Amino acid sequence: MDATAAPVDTPPVGSAFPPELHAGLPSGVGTGTFSTARHTTGYLSAGRSGDPVLLLIHGWPEFARSWVRVLEPLASAGFHVVAPDMRGYGTSTVHPQVGDYSTEEIVTDMIELLAHLGVSEQSRCVVVGHDHGAPIAWNIATHHPELLAGVAGVCVPYMPPGAALTDHIDRELYPAAEYPYGQWDYLIAHLSLAEKIAEEFDADVPGVIASIMRAGSPRHLERRAPNASVRSRGGWFPDGPPRREPDPRVLDDTEYEALVASLQHTGFAAANAWYRNNRANAEYAAANATGGRLTVPALFVHARYDIVCTTLTTSLPEPMRRAADDLDEAVVDAGHWVAQEKPAELVAVLSRWLRSLGLAR
């Protein structure tokens, strides 16, 4: 079966959203919903609706609330900050086919949402993406540059059409004979073990989130990422997740319960489907409007202790540097979950860059 035509388990029709999703939100953070004939997007927002839009796109396996610690501080810089639940997550539509989670479909969701928020060529916005949300942000920049005043990626650099992650692996840490895909082995596992991984994650969502969402540290860079051995292990956690308690440096109890409830509601098949459209995504990326270049002002935020996106000790950012007309870079001393682990530092980095563009107070 063509992977893009494979079915995705969806919540029962009419099933209510778990109350934990929005429980205990800060007073300055509101909720909203925008629907078209093709998709419904739920979102969180902060700031005044008349201010310039700052769109925050989350990655795997998160949801809008993953940005909650930065929403109000960024709004205070003069922005209408909007963090959507991406398709397959939170309060947004869980679509039935793997092909529904292609980059083109997801970018279209965001373009429709931006139009709803009043973004146009005369009223441009800034888009920030983290993890798998970063490729969505980069693709918005290369397909719809006329709508953007700037674009930023956190952890995952821009990869121009034709560039390959596997060309930038630390082969001292990941010998090719044993680790042909290096730390990116998990991406292949999402294709070859798709159903098994989704079932494994759905069987113990609390344990999965407690195990993967941990703070970074220098010692993590001295060992191989567990992502590099997913296929040889036969799954991420074939013997069950190793941790039961969340890391309070990343998720407090309320945020942990909200994320767990969200993923228990939607299931992991939809979230994982983002990784299963490689051919369609490559074709879409190649059909860009800029010749594959980042023509709008861009910022890349390195996470110093990210053991998968090791952008400070490998050549991974080089294709982005060659393809960008106006690129700034900054480093946050955090692991992969930057907005949760070091929200103040991320706000400071984004605010400095936005001020340098004359966009922030």
From TrEMBL:
Pfam families: Abhydrolase_1. It comes from Brevibacterium daeguense. Residues 52-342 form the AB hydrolase-1 domain. Residues 1-22, 223-247 are annotated as: Disordered. Transmembrane segments: none annotated. It comes from the Bacteria. One of its GO terms (molecular function) is hydrolase activity. Keywords: Hydrolase. SUPFAM superfamilies: alpha/beta-Hydrolases (SSF53474). This is Alpha/beta hydrolase.
